[in-house]
Amino acid sequence: MVRSARWVAAVPMAALAVATVYPLVFTTNVAMKTRREYVLDRFAPADALRWDNFTSAWTNVGTSRYFLNSVIVVACSVALLLLLGSMAGFALGRLKFRGSSTLFLGCLAALFVPFQVIMVPLARVMSDAGLVDTYPGLILAYVAQFLPFTIFLMAGHYATVPSEIVDAARIDGNSLYGVYWRIMLPIGAPALVSVGVLNALFCWNDVLISLLMMPSAENRTLMVGVTSLRGQYSDDIPVFAAGVLIAALPVLVVYLFLQRRIAEGVTAGATKG
Amino acid sequence: MPSRQAGPIGRVRRAKRAGRARRAGRVDRLAPFVLVAPAVLVVVLLRLWPLVLGINFSFTGDGELNGTAVGLDNYLALLDDPLFRTSLRNVGLLVLLLPIAVAIPGLLATFIHLKVPGHRVYRGVYFFPAVLSPVIVGAIFTLLLSFDGPLNAALGGLGLPPVDWLGDPDVAIFAVVGVHVWATFGMALVVFLAGFSTLDPSLLDAAKVDGASFVQTLRHVIVPGLTRTIQFVFVTTMIGMLTSMFGLLYVMTGGGPEGSTYLPEYYIWMQQGRFDRPALASAASTALFVAMLVVGLAQVAVLRRTGKED
Q1: Between chains, do A97 and B32 touch, taking CB under 8 Å as contact?
Q2: Does A99 map to a domain?
């Protein structure tokens, strides 16, 4: 009977697939319309591929500036996350030393401390350190937020590297730093890409941490910028839609090319958990 | 560990090597600590220390009472605050909706695993909203759910009256949770599919040969085989509901209408950022932390139990 169940399921599943894609299609269509067109009929296909709304969303409301802020912050955060995460992941996943299991447990525990729980005192710590409203402040906040997860995944990955490879490198006279740099980093590169893409998505998509750490308008990241778009364009929905799509575009591109990697990163946590 | 090599090596070379090994040994003994130090520093200073500070902070006052100990006053104030009570009630609602939020991706993954026509496409399509920021999703859905938007137009096409999705206090929280589920079920789906790949295919084949119905297969083969995955999805979905809906609330409802869509995370944000009550916000944070701790410990307990079964 499993066979017939398959066909019964196919119909709602196709409908769901449409429901999954439709919101984006609708928004794209709206972004192509003129304001007049939108007011008259929001569902009809736009009468031309029109990019004016995208250019005005890009230039008029600081979107380009927010975009740049996001790129800088995300790039630095991910680089730091991968560096610190792979170092600590190698040490915790591969080396037995005094306190290593305690540290690993502490890392797991930190996974269960969501940002909302520490945001008030963290804001205070950051402002005492003079880091509020600066790139380094937001970058550090992201690194602190996503580091336990990164360490956890990298430690799990490094634990699977065959010990023959490590032994061979040791006999060749490598110190542990050499093993990290010449063996673990290259062998772990695919895992680093998965974790890096996932972290980039987390940082790019975040709004709460960024709202808290970057209060001034010119330091906004793109997602915070999008939240302010709505107020500025409440009477010009097509430009608003275009701004939203600009903010989503990098993620969509990454998704198209790296879907497998993202799924790997998500499931690695599940299968190792 | 310094490499101990047997064999005919000259004495001088051996001595040199031993010296190098001793030095390397010292370097290597320190290496693990050097490697973890930066990460430990960041996590301790910016995650664990603020946690301690926050708990401590929740027992002090706001405004004029800043810094003075007030005992449990903040917690009592929380329980008195209708907004906080609403946010707790909404958490209760999320817990009730949790089985649905887990069952949907579970069923979909089952069908994809059974190779429903088009299964290859579905996996990629379903997963894609999961990578979008809640801000983007929220912004798109404010358009879709607006009173004269597509969803009400579709209802009108079916001859149903329009619904004020985000403006009706009885409806808005369901609308937001629905959007959250739309945006995240792909995550759980991918996790379920990974679980399926560990399921012994011969069991499914046996069920097929024995002529088991779909429901029987689900109950006697799939669910018992995926216990661990199901538990993992329960925990991660709950955590997601408690900690990653801020963007949606911020963009779609702002906690309204009439404060009906408040969740603890949004409450904390408002008390800290808008009402300037950081100590009260800290008390709410601590309450949220306790809730997370319960979820986390439940997972550890569950993992330990299933670990024994393995």
Answers
A1: yes
A2: yes
Chain B residues with beta carbon closer than 8 angstroms to that of A173:
20, 24
Between chain A and chain B, the number of residue pairs with CB atoms below 8 A apart is: 290
> In terms of Cα–Cα distance, which of A106, A85, A120 is closest to A202?
A85
Distance from CA of B170 to the nearest CA of A (A): 24
Residue A10 lies in a domain: no
B125 contacts on A by Cβ (under 8 Å)? 17, 20-21
Residue A264 in any domain: the answer is yes
Please give the residue that has the higher pLDDT: either B14 or B178: B178
Question: Which residues neighbour A111 within 8 Å (Cβ) at sequence distance 6 or greater?
Answer: A148, A149, A152
CB B288 within 8 A of CB B267: no
Does CATH number 3.40.50.150 belong to domain B73-309? no
For A14-30, what is the mean pLDDT? 90
Q: Does A127 touch chain B (CB under 8 A)?
A: no
Convert the pLDDT of each residue in B24-73 to its tens digit. 667 778 888 999 999 999 999 999 999 999 999 899 888 777 777 888 88
| CATH number reported for the structural domain that contains residue A69 in this entry | 1.10.3720.10
Angle formed at CA B91 by CA A148 and CA B87, multiple of 5 degrees: 105
Domain that holds residue A73: 64-272
Pick from B229, B265, B292: CB nearest A112: B292
Which of A208, A223, A204 is CA-nearest to residue A66? A223
- Name the H helices within B133-171: 134-144, 150-157
Q: Where are the domains of chain B?
A: 11-57, 73-309
* B101-157 tens-digit pLDDT: 999 999 999 888 888 888 888 888 898 888 999 999 999 999 889 888 888 888 888
